[in-house]
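Support request, please re-run this one:
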Amino acid sequence: MGDALKRAQTGKPLRVPARAYNAFIDAARDHQARQQNVAGAPAAELRPGGIVPVKNASGADRERFDVLGIDGPVFGPDENEEGFKNRVALRGLVPTLPDHAGRFTILLEPVRAGEIGRGCVCGVCQVKVDVADADHAFADVNDGQAGSLKSGLGGTAFILWKESGTGEKWAVVKLGVPPDSLGRLFAVLVTKDGGVAGDAATDCTFTYTVKDLFGAELATALSPLRPRFAHTEYVEPGADSPGVAWYDAQGDLQLLEAVEEVPKTDLVAVLTSIRYDTTAHEFQYKKTNVRVIETGDEDAAWTAITDLTECDDT
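Re-run finished. Output below.
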């Protein structure tokens, strides 16, 4: 039996065998079923590998390997409970932050606006990544961009491989990584960009520009969340000194502390013991040096300890 699906040749008459024609019809029906019947019977073959139907609700046609933020299921249980139970099918929008941080899919085929195609939500997939730093090992949604992910110190896509350099690069990523950029403490560089050191009458109000360890600016005018002592002078950290930060559930950077921001201290002498030596006929004392956070001004007036009267040594 010849090959019913062999390609046509230029200049030769086109003859379509019945078996080939039927194969075309079956393929077209399968495509229509995926586009229009996502609420039908369960499609177990779409579950392995984290591949699910995705409706392109972004308002524009999308290319293969574009990124869409997940906006929920196509059918919610309140709209079509059977459809919701039978098949996982998601709506995809142009991704934005913080709404779609860690909540996105990579399309595995071109999908016209309003239609449904396959998307990868877990597993290994190709995608373009806007690489901010060549040493970044993670990526997540690129705010307002469907054509690529954005590299960073954290994210829910682990970069297995990428083209060298920075800018928009092809990469192979692993989706479904725990969102370690959310809630995970990581090291940063901080430089004071405002505020005052404080003193015995005012509080410290230092704010900082925060960068990642490669020098990329992450945020400005952040105050550390670690509590400060009231009415205390603090030491100003040097430029690009160490700090600790994390991203909260909304995707906002929070600065826990600037490590070198510490209270300014003084070394003062403290009287620890006093006695009267009857042989030398004198008062004697011992003292020790104590480091304190803050010292006030010396009293302007003398304060009497006790009234002494002349006495007979005999």
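The domain at 36-175 is CATH 2.40.300 (Virus Head Decoration Protein; Chain: A,). The chain has a mean pLDDT of 84.
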